[in-house]
Design a protein that fits this description.
two-stranded antiparallel ribbon, Recoverin, domain 1, disordered N terminus, 9-stranded mixed sheet, Rossmann fold, 31% helix, 2 domains, 15 helices, alpha/beta
């Protein structure tokens, strides 16, 4: 099924009812597995995923796939974060189906297996509702560093504001939480099928306020909260970083309106920053017409018809001197969110006197993997959340384009 979907762009209704057969077909189509003799029970969708996951990090990069399956990588990468999660894989293999605009209509994903050193408190409601999208997962180290409350790293998933799930956050958070130095939080939020802007940022701000209100209960440092997101999640964390002093954008969700939604620092992976300029920049998405591209669905209409909403929803609009420090990573060949978006937010922050680092991913598309990038992100978070001095270099990092 993997081959049928990725190579052909769709899955027939008949095949959708035969996930096991499809898994076998997919395995047979993968050259990387051709020399392996697998028992029949090993050919299920989970085992298939594990065999392709060469570095065992719980997600598939484009490089881990055979060349002929890479062409339509973005079709399976439902949340647009540059990796295929176990849930996205299972959605294709038979637990769901591709929906409008490439998003997935699927059952709620099963909880991911946790590393041995992490405990999870899942599905905590942060907005005083029973909406499953308005919940967060809290990850705590079993062996935390003694003496001080833990700083918090909050991950917000991507997916064009219309796909994705908070379950993907643990892939980014696990190494930090396992270290014993951090707590991690992965936030869900309402998608555009359910609500238009500003519902998404109201949800994220309510989640930050919840974390601060419950910090003492869980041994967290409410004054040290870093936010990290990719693509649409990058947009939302950028907005958190620039709008902490914009009262009219706080919303009124949840029981903790006595708390503020300010954050300590921002790690922004290829997030949209200015919707008004993005429509004029080169992209594989035609934003000059149509009503069903991601930003139009977010704003309730095409950007040219919704200029006021587009301006308000753009993080760059709200940049001011007191904003949180930023670390922005963006691929120069990103076909979905133009690289110029990263340059714009970086320039605006620097002009306002805000600390900003721009990490150029040379040749990178909409998603990338780099151990050097991971190390620089760690230095940035350690600096701002733990006070560990570091000279963070941002020399360009060459990567294979992931279009």
């Amino acid at each position: 099924m993997l081959r049928n979907f990725w190579m052909g762009g769709g899955v027939s209704a008949a095949l959708m009812n035969k996930p096991r057969l499809l898994s076998l077909v997919a395995l047979a189509s993968l050259p990387v597995l051709a020399q392996q003799t697998l028992p029949q029970e090993a050919a299920g969708p989970i085992r298939q995923f594990e065999l392709m996951d060469a570095d065992k990090d719980g997600r598939l990069s484009r490089e881990e796939l055979p060349g002929r399956l890479r062409e339509n990588f973005a079709r399976v990468d439902g949340n647009g974060d540059g990796f295929i999660s176990r849930e996205e894989h299972l959605a294709v293999v038979g637990r769901g189906r591709p929906g409008r605009g490439g998003s997935f209509q699927q059952r709620p994903p099963a909880a991911r297996p946790l590393p041995a050193g992490i405990e999870a408190l899942r599905d905590l409601p942060y907005a005083a509702t029973d909406n499953p999208r308005q919940k967060l997962d809290l990850y705590l180290p079993k062996n935390r560093r003694p003496g001080k409350p833990l700083p918090v790293i909050v991950f917000i998933h991507g997916g064009g504001w219309r796909a994705g799930d908070k379950s993907s956050g643990i892939s980014n958070l696990s190494r930090f939480v396992e270290s014993g130095d951090y707590a991690g939080v992965s936030v869900g939020y309402r998608l555009t099928q359910e609500a238009q802007w500003p519902a998404q940022i109201h949800d994220c701000k309510a989640a930050i306020r919840w974390i601060k209100a419950h910090a003492a209960e869980h041994g967290l440092d409410a004054t040290k909260i870093g936010v990290w997101g990719s693509s649409a999640g990058g947009h939302l964390v950028s907005f958190l970083g620039t709008s902490g002093d914009v009262k009219e954008l706080e919303g009124t969700l949840g029981a903790h309106l006595d708390q503020d939604s300010g954050v300590t620092c921002v790690v922004n992976y290829f997030g949209p920053e200015d919707f008004l300029t993005m429509i004029r920049q080169p992209s594989s998405v035609d934003r000059t017409k149509g009503r069903d591209y991601p930003e139009a669905l977010l704003l309730g209409g095409p950007v040219p018809e919704r200029e006021a909403a587009a301006r308000e929803a753009s993080p760059v609009t709200h940049v001011s001197k007191g904003d949180a420090p930023f670390f922005t990573a963006h691929g120069t060949e990103d076909p979905l969110v133009p690289f110029a978006q990263a340059e714009e937010i970086h320039a605006a922050l620097k002009k306002a006197g805000v600390s900003s680092l721009l990490q150029v991913m040379s040749g990178g598309g909409h998603g990338f993997r780099s151990p050097l990038l991971e190390e620089r992100v760690k230095q940035f978070l350690d600096l701002h959340l733990r006070g560990i001095p570091a000279e963070i270099t941002t020399t360009p990092i060459p990567v294979e384009s992931r279009r």
